[in-house]
Write a structure and sequence with these properties.
By secondary structure, the protein is an alpha/beta fold. The chain has two domains: 113 residues, Periplasmic binding protein-like II (D-Maltodextrin-Binding Protein, domain 2), CATH 3.40.190.10; 105 residues, Periplasmic binding protein-like II (D-Maltodextrin-Binding Protein, domain 2). It is 34% helix and 22% strand. It has nine helices and ten strands. Strand 1, helix 1 and strand 2 form a beta-alpha-beta unit. Helix 1 packs antiparallel against helix 9. It starts with 5 loop residues before the first strand and ends in a 5-residue tail after the last helix. The model has no long low-confidence stretch (mean pLDDT 95).
Length: 232
């Protein structure tokens, strides 16, 4: 085995749990260790441009990696789509969300948790969905905005909002029963949530960073990604 190294990874909050599982398999296979920071893709973009030492970015969109490539902060030809995200309307209460998501327009919902559409792609998808359903104006006074999809999920999990528009991967955790109730938002009601990975310039000469990019394309990683409800 080549000398084990470590790689600094910035990961979108929605993908933190799958990455934790992938990291175990990656370390077992390669000996390399991941140092992971999770948060909102928009904030990571700012940090990377300002010199943060991340070597690999797993974004919640495909725009941020493209921007980093254009500005010379990422390695040409290294980006690819590692997952297609799915948006769900979720409540911590069992039986609260119905099979059509109609509860969103009802008086039972006083607060709706969404991620900041400016920094979180799931937030942008949530806004598109509300517009597609003709609910954007009605729901505007009810919105509770999280900085990341992780904070958005917390708002709904703690009951600060009756429902949240969150990532399916936060609700469907392999080996655990789903908590509460949810409705999978049809993909034709928002732009596709393409989640791209990219090797950053900081990691260009780090074999562990390149090895992680390769491992994310492996069948072992893909199985984990599918098990969390992401599209391939």
């Amino acid at each position: 085995m080549a000398q084990a190294g470590e790689v600094q990874v910035a990961v979108a909050a929605n993908f933190a749990a799958p990455l934790a599982q992938i990291a175990q398999a990656f370390t077992a296979a390669s000996g390399h260790v991941l140092k992971v920071s999770s948060g909102s893709t928009g904030k990571f973009h700012t940090q990377i441009v300002n010199g943060a030492p991340f070597e690999v970015l797993l974004a919640a969109d495909d725009e941020t990696p493209k921007k980093l490539l254009a500005s010379g902060h990422a390695v040409a030809g290294s980006h690819f789509t590692y997952a297609i995200g799915r948006l769900v309307l979720w409540s911590a209460k069992p039986g609260f969300v119905d099979a059509q998501g109609a509860v969103l327009a009802s008086d039972k919902v006083r607060h709706v948790a969404v991620a900041n559409p400016k920094t979180a792609p799931y937030g942008a998808a949530a806004v598109q969905f509300m517009q597609a359903r003709g609910l954007a104006e009605v729901l505007k006074p009810k919105l509770v905005t999280g900085e990341s999809i992780a904070q958005t999920f917390q708002f709904a999990a703690t009951g600060n909002a009756e429902v949240g528009l969150v990532a399916l991967s936060q609700v469907v955790v392999p080996g655990k029963p789903a908590v509460g109730s949810y409705w999978l938002v049809p993909q034709n009601l928002h732009s596709e949530i393409r989640q791209d990975a990219v090797l950053l310039k900081t990691g260009e000469k780090n074999p562990a960073a390149r090895a992680l990019i390769d491992f994310l394309k492996s069948e072992a990683a893909r199985q984990v990604i599918r098990s969390f409800g992401y599209g391939p």
